[in-house]
Amino acid sequence: MTERKTLMSYLFLLPALLLFVAFFLYPVTTSIVRSFTDWNGFNAAFRWVGWRNYETIWSDIHFWESTGRTLKFAFITTVAQTVLGFLIAFFIYSLVSERWKKLLRVAIYTPVILPGAVVSLLWVNMLSPNFGMVNEWLHKLGLGSFARGWLGDPSTAMNMIMAVNTWKYIGLTVTFYIVAMLTIPKEVIESAKIDGAGKTRMMWNIFRPLLTGITEVNFILSLIGGLKAFDLIYMMTGGGPGDSTTVLGIMVYRRAFLSFKFGEAITMGILLFIIILVLTLISRKLMANREG
Amino acid sequence: MKKMTKVWGVWSICAALILMLAACGSGNKETGATESPVATNATEPAASASNSSTEQVTLKFLYIWPEFEDKMNETIKNFEAANPNIKIKPEIVPWDKVIEVLQTKVASKQEPDISFGWTHWMAPFVNEVDAALPLDEYLNKDEAWKNSFVRNDLLATSIVSPEKPYVSNIPFKLSFQVVIYNKKIFEDNQLQIPQTLEQFEMIMSTLASKNIIPLAASGKDGNLDILKDSFAGMNFYRNGTATGDWLKGEESYSSPEYLAAMEFTKKWFNQGYFGKDSFAVGGDEVSNLLLSKKAAMVLGNNNQISALQPQIDDELGAFLFPAPEGMKAQAPLTADGFFVLKASKHPEESVTFLKYLTSQENQKLWAESTQSMPVLKDLKTGNETIDTLIDQVASSASDYPKQQLSYNPGELAKLLQASFAEYLLKSDADVKSTAEKMEKDHRNAINSGKQ
Amino acid sequence: MSRNRLAQWSNYVLLSLITLIILYPMLYMILNSLRSTKDIMLFPTRLWPTGKLQWMNYADAFHIGKVSVYFLNSVTVTGATLLIQLIVVTLAAYALGKWKPPGYQILFFLFLATLMITSEMTTIPVFLMLRQFDLLNTHQGLILAYVGGGIGMAIYLIKNFVDTLPKEMEEAAKIDGAGLLRIFWSIDLPLIVPVLAVVSIMSFVGVWSEFFWALITISEDRLKTLPLGLLNFQSQYNTNYGVLLAGLTIVTIPSMLVYLLFSRYFIEGMTAGSIKG
Question: What is the pTM of this model?
């Protein structure tokens, strides 16, 4: 590593590092300090309480229930988005018609572009028991027995939200996969075809191993996004019915803005961060091994 | 040589961009600069407060009604004309974000002078935050103002705790739960406005048998909890205990009256009186049910009446939720109001504005043009339904708890709501264990608030 | 012969169905923005507007949502954010991925870690910091906050892409005597255009429709961005759905256009100028 290279590198990194310090290092450090206080988010004055916030949260059963839900939500949506994303991307990639390719690529990305407010508004509408499209179609197709109050039934609310979440973000996964697929050298594909590989074999034995890099990216991003999920869930069910969709993101929000216990909210944020950190590290380790 | 040029090239482009931005944003900078002296300078404004009658004062004013922006601007214009030394700078914030926005503003010393607040829910602003200015002094100095309100205890609902026994909020327009109903459906089925709870139940079963949703309510938005609480309140009241006591946690959820209230609500729930899948249904959809004539009644708010009427050709009416036989109907006195921030540098002028907001002239303006329910005595809107309600409110029993809470119920309300929802939805749920769970959460909240 | 045709045909039917399901909410939004609120409330599930098309909704949205003012603000803020962010993250990710200075793994991980933080931890400290520097209620402050908030994701994506850049061309150029910067500018930069396009789209969509920060930072009406205008259509008890959907469509269309515009850079531009096929 030449001196010049090192110098250039740090120069290149400088603006990003400055922003990092200003917008992450400083706020997070401040927040960590505040997690040891009884800060309510408003006043400048607060008292040091040591580990009390941590103890409170640790012994709160609602916190643990919520963590369980969050983990479940994150895992299922991550796996769904990664696996389905791969399948859909491959499907689009191997389409013959250019027109359909273009149309589908654009179509699948539109949910990503739609503002969260629109998505929740429309889906709540479609899933409504009285006027909803979904139930109406179920009746028309003779599957009326399946019709129910999707978001009002604790046993189905979470599943529906996971489905909507997947619907919204799968466009990202698919797009990343397609971009990556386009970098696969044509020779590899040609020689596989010559070897007589059919669609399935092509996908499993050729594409999948070559795309581990982007799979990791997709997986990590989906995982982090899933663990932090808040906007969509809050707008669609507010955490209900009951507490069947109260994930950690919602608990943190409530603790901060409904109970004004910012100190505790930050504590939960820190615990959530640790969870995300550990899971991310584990995932990266596992994927790196597979690559080798 | 060439490489260095490249480096400098890149950096100078960056610099140029940043300079460009700084330049084009300099216009905005000006306003930024004028903001800080008001907020950060501590000594100067104190002097100006005593000379308030002659110096130009600007008050920052926060409210939550984008739909009434024109009306509020008119109010502000009238006020400024009568008070030439005071300027009002309004800001509108969405109603569901007002707490967060206010919190951020107070945390960064950017708070307004006067802000919107729910008269009956000042706990967040008074307890933890201690942001509300006590108003008793100003009220006592102006007896006429103090006595101008439609119910004497209206102001008292803004008293939050025994440790802080002062009026913190001046109500501006009444806002409370009513039953909004479709007059035509009632006529078609020969139904009258129920005067007692028992009559109400009979009406509901009649409607249910005709496949009309009797009382559409949003489980999701907490309508059912409000209902359950008012049942419980009535039960306690009947036995001589005010609702406030169990809100305070001095009564127990496991008491027979409360269990009875829960079971009663569940009975109605199971009979489908609230509509199908009430927990999947939000406030908007409840309105839809009424507008599409699928429901005969909805649990709503008095402010909705004027918004709903234009969207349906049947006539709508409203009445207070009836009390059981032999008792007076309760009108929980809840209102949208305003409070002065303690940190305001111009409390006198702020109170002057509050007085104007609740003046005859202004209240009349709002009552007649927006059909909001005024908070003053003997003022009518011209709308028959609303005026009837005003009469009912003025003469109803006042059992709204003086909250006197020592903790913020926001998150607790969500927990209680969740437990109650579980109880309603599970067919084999046990009412006693639900009550115990709610009790535990409630006690925890009180204890952690005391620390 | 006909079996093939049947397979193809059923393929297309399936595709159309899938496309419809995916696009349905968007179609709903656009088509329903042309219905009156009363109509929407009575028949919420109808897709196709019946009766007169309510172009008034758009006129109302423009007026109530103050689109003429807010639109320009959004363009300024989003444009500036995109520009600055691209420069900052490209430089940083390139250095991390290609030159790998000492400590690069830790730095990379720090950037990744920024994604794992909840907004409650950063909101108030950042807000106070902006106030400190007199940047509240200004576009610069907002832009800075947006740029700062978005570097994590962007660096993560770009760096991963840079990792996969081929070395052959670099070797050839080095033999020709090209220095680090020359390699960066003329050889590698064109190769990472696809991922930059993806990042641009994601950034654009994120900033264009961002709501919360804009709400708490900007209180001056003439500086507000487009999403804030949407608030004017909603009140506690009464939402004007027809106009709201029109407003939402107005907000969404630019994002759509940006996607269409930029997507060509990572689909078609891929094979241009590289050694592979």
Answer: 0.85
